Each structure stands twice: as C-alpha cells, then as structure tokens.
Amino acid sequence: MTTLTFTPMTEDDFAVFWPTFQAIVAAQETYAIEPSISIEAARQLWLKAPKASVVAKDASGQLLGAYYLKANAAGPGDHVCNCGYMVAPAARGKGVARAMCEHSQQQAHQLGFLAMQYNAVVATNEVAVALWQKLGFSIVGTVPNAFRHAQLGFVDTHVMYKVLPGH
Question: How far is Cα 106 from Cα 103, in angstroms, rounded to an integer?
Fold first, then answer.
C-alpha cells in the first residue's frame, strides 16, 4: 500500500469520485441508495450533508477512495457517528478501506464522537464485514432480508458498532 493523503472533499474531488459512486450504487450489492440517484442528490448526500467528507489520494494525487462522517442520529443520539466508504475499483484490495476506516475513527474522535455505528452492512459483503471486525467493530444486530441484492435477492444486513478509542 502506498502512502495515502487524506483531505476534505472538494467539489472538484466529487466530480472525480462521481463515476465510482455511480458504479457502486448501480451494482446494488453494498449500498441502499437509489441506483438512479442524480449527481445533485449524490453530492448532497456525500459532500454537503455530512459533518465531514474526505478523500484518500495516492502520492500522485489520484483519488482512490472517499468517506463521509456524520452523526448517526440527532439530539441525544448525536454522540454516535456513522460513516460510509467507497473505494475506486482499481484500488480495491490494496488497504484503502482499512486506511479510510482508521482515519475516519481519528476524525470522529476529534469531532467529539464517542462511538461509530454502521447501520446496514450487507451481510454478503464478507470482505467489508471481516475488515470492520478486524478493526474492532462488533455485529450488534442482524436485520433479516433488509437488502435487495441485485444478484442474490433478499439478504441480511448487520448493524455494527465500536466505541472509539479514548472513550
């Protein structure tokens, strides 16, 4: 794995990221996002609404992945954050998701979050489930048939949770 730099996502970064985002949601294998989402709605979801949106780039400046970080709930639940990660197809299997997850936990801690929760990790996304578990997340619940996978039909999702370091 090459050294990654993490910077806040810009509008230009989002334009570069859009094909990755579009391909991932269109595949209907990992994200419960409408496959025909418009670029404007995707920009709002990934770049505008979250507390932080971050890109991971290699030494040459190529965008390898991106993540968002936001409160999982409002008011009395706003101390737990939620993140979403997407890795460019050419960068998969090279440690980008791990690096983004580790970075997002540091960011979340700096922003005052006490824990991180993933609301709907698709159970058939075994690589992600295993990685999140290696990074200290526990499956705290499973929702039967909560995701309509493009190839497999109805599959389960996991709720995964981790208290952030220092809390």
Answer: 5
Per-residue model confidence as pLDDT tens digits over 10-27 = 999 999 999 999 999 999
Q: Is the pLDDT of residue 134 over 80?
A: yes
- 161 strand-pairing partners: 117, 138
Chain length of the chain? 167
Strands (E), 18-152: 52-57, 63-71, 80-87, 115-122, 138-149
Q: What CATH number does residue 100 fall under?
A: 3.40.630.30
- Single-letter amino acid code for the residue at 88: A
What is the per-residue pLDDT for 166? 76
Number of domains in the chain: 1
Q: Which structural domain, as residue segments, surrounds residue 91?
A: 5-163
What are the tokens at 152? 């497999």
Question: What residues contact 153, with CB distance under 8 A and at least 6 apart?
Answer: none
CB atoms within 10 A of CB 97: 23
CA–CA separation, 119 and 157 (whole Å): 8
Tell whether pTM > 0.90. Answer: yes
